[in-house]
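Now read this:
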Amino acid sequence: MTPAPTPAYRRLSVEERRSQLLEAALSLFAHRAPEEVSLDDVAEAAGVSRPLVYRYFPGGKQQLYEAALRSAADELQQCFDEARVGPLLPRLARALDRYLAFVDQHDAGFSALLQGGSVVETSRTTAIVDGVRRAAAEHILSHLGVTDAGLLLRMTVRMWITAVEAASLIWLDEDKQPPVDELRDWLVEQFVAVLSVTAARDPQTAALVQALAEDV
């Protein structure tokens, strides 16, 4: 019997190899805090040598972490990219479903993303995380149909996003309790509640609260 031919080795392009290494790093960061992941771990997970990891990330672990952080941030930003179809609150619930699914999937990596670890926090990592928050706020204001949000409304939306982050971290600490659908509904209710508080002081927010009550 003629033996089956050995598949030809395919050299990966620069972008393909970089993506492979980032995917391996993200997979590790999803289950372990950054300080517990070494470059040797990433090399082993990707099936490459440690020098090859350094070739693509000469800055070492910090550079790799920042690149993985950007990749995770891009995915988180997309969580709030919901089509503007139908009532707002169900749209917000669907965005939260994706956000919480990311939190659930990445677990320790999500905690590390927001809380940092022994990996040195820099202005770049801070900017990456803050970019997610700002993008989420812009998406929500867009869904509210607001093009020129006043200070109190902007503060309210960003405060709620911070509350979502904090609740997500506590949810992980509490062994992912309550059930994720209950957490999602509670966060949506909190959004309406904080808007209602601001509405007592801000006519722009008051008009939005009234619109939400009619948007059923």
